[in-house]
Amino acid sequence: MIEIKNLTKVYKLNKKKMAELKTKETVKRAADNISLVAKPGEIYGLLGPNGAGKTTTLRCVATLLKPTEGSVSVCGFDTVKESEKVRECIGFLTNEIKLDPHFTPKYLFGFFGRLHGLDDATIEKRRKELFEYFDITDFENKKIEELSTGMKQKAAIAVSLVHDPKVVIFDEPTNGLDIITARNVTDLLLKLRDEGKLVIISTHIMSEAEKLCDRVGIIIDGKKVEEGTLDELLAHTGAKDLEDAFFNLYKAHHKEEK
């Protein structure tokens, strides 16, 4: 289970960043008092526009960032006080984390498997399962830099799942992928959920969230403005689909802010 309580993450902005964001503020609240609970056997989606705070939230869950305020626990472990325990039970993937281009998928799979304390027999079993699922086997001895974009992404996913984690955290899982690879990824997420794992993703693609997510938390300007199943969100907003529901909430949020 993932439990986020009053998560706030504040960044100090230098002059260059202030210019990029077109703001006079010297700090940015990337996540602003976010609370949510995600449970095993479900896909929980963080939905929002770019810059809304989705990635920041997931990085706090994955122990890459420390909250400025509030707390995050994963499988009962605090992400700050027990970060090593958290990392043992999660698989985390973001487009910004790349596999080393000079090594092969087979080597990297074994390397990260050993980092997680797996024995050679377990690593080999997991590698065969995941490489066959993603059709990586014929490319397992090629350098990462020689692979297509889709094959690089599939290799990265396989490596992130080497230790069969209880919690899978994917930041924009299909961003930039071709339609075939994207379908492979979404099918895998559904498979992992059906195995009883907790999957939490961020996305700004409404159709992806509709197909994948059992529950959705909508984040706008660092704040969680709504949460629920698709049916609950549609009922609450009076919308006919998730895209309309999102824009209704987006307009209401900015009207309140003014």
What would you say this structure looks like, in words?
The chain is of the alpha/beta class and 258 residues long. It is 41% helix and 25% strand. The chain has a 6-stranded mixed beta sheet, with helices on both faces. Helix 4 (105-115) packs across helix 5 (120-133). The radius of gyration is 19 Å and the shape is globular. The model has no long low-confidence stretch (mean pLDDT 90).
Short précis:
The protein has 258 residues and is of the alpha/beta class. The chain is 41% helix and 25% strand.
Topology:
Elements: E1 2-12, H1 15-21, E2 27-38, E3 43-47, H2 54-61, E4 69-74, E5 77-78, H3 83-89, E6 90-94, H4 105-115, H5 120-133, H6 149-160, E7 167-171, H7 179-194, E8 198-203, H8 206-212, E9 215-220, E10 223-228, H9 230-237, H10 242-257
Parallel strand pairs: 3-8, 3-9, 6-7, 7-8
Antiparallel strand pairs: 1-2, 1-4, 4-5, 9-10
Helix pairs in contact: 4-5, 4-6, 9-10
Instruction: Characterize the main sheet.
Output: 6 strands, mixed
- Return the average pLDDT rounded to an integer: 90
Query: What is the percentage of strand-forming residues?
Result: 15-25%
Which value, in Å, is the CA radius of gyration?
19 Å
Q: Reading side by side through the largest sheet, how are the strands ordered?
A: 6-7-8-3-9-10
Number of strands: 10
Low-pLDDT runs of 5+ residues are: none
Structural class, from helix and strand content? alpha/beta
Straight-line N-to-C gap: 36 Å
